[in-house]
Amino acid sequence: LDQIKREYSNYVIKKFSFKEKKQISFNEAEIIGKEIINLFKQNEFDKCILFYNNFKNVITQIPQAQQIIPIESTTKVEEKKSESFYEFEPEEDEILNDLLPRNISTQIFKAFLENAASEQGSRMTAMDNATRNAGDLVDKLTINYNRSRQASITKELIEIISGAESL
């Protein structure tokens, strides 16, 4: 968050915080999606980029930047051919007006889930490292304790033997 503030502080229009929530649901993503669409319709911005951690595995989380408005197309749009005519019920515009906001909310919820998985992976790795380090520390302390105990026993035996020899 601090890095985003440092680099893009004059571009940030609104901030949402869900610190008090233990588990974020699709409702929160829908609230954010609706707010993004309203701000876009009011011409508050021309591009919306979503930053999140993409969970690859427990050890690796990859920072991602995904542009959600306008939607970047990864495939080339081919010109319509006369043989690829489809009739839509309801009309295409009505379908798009319903699906595009849901797509934005879905992308936001996906980012929430990826962040949650990344956080759990990081916590699991940190706890595993802490457990391993604690085990190593216990082993070292056990060895030191046994050495000092052996040294005190040896010292007592030497004192006893020395005392017996002097008699």
Summarize, please.
The protein has 167 residues and is mainly alpha-helical. The protein has three helices and two strands.
What would you say this structure looks like, in words?
This protein is mainly α and 167 residues long. Helix content is 59%, strand content 10%. The protein is built from three helices and two strands; from the N terminus they run H-H-E-E-H. The protein has a two-stranded antiparallel sheet with strand order 1-2. The radius of gyration is 31 Å and the shape is rod-shaped. It starts with a helix and ends with a helix.
Specify the helix fraction band: 55-70%
Strand content: 5-15%
Mean pLDDT comes to: 84
Largest sheet: 2 strands, antiparallel
Weakly predicted, low-confidence segments: none
Structural class, please? mainly alpha
Distance between the first and last residues' Cα: 79 Å
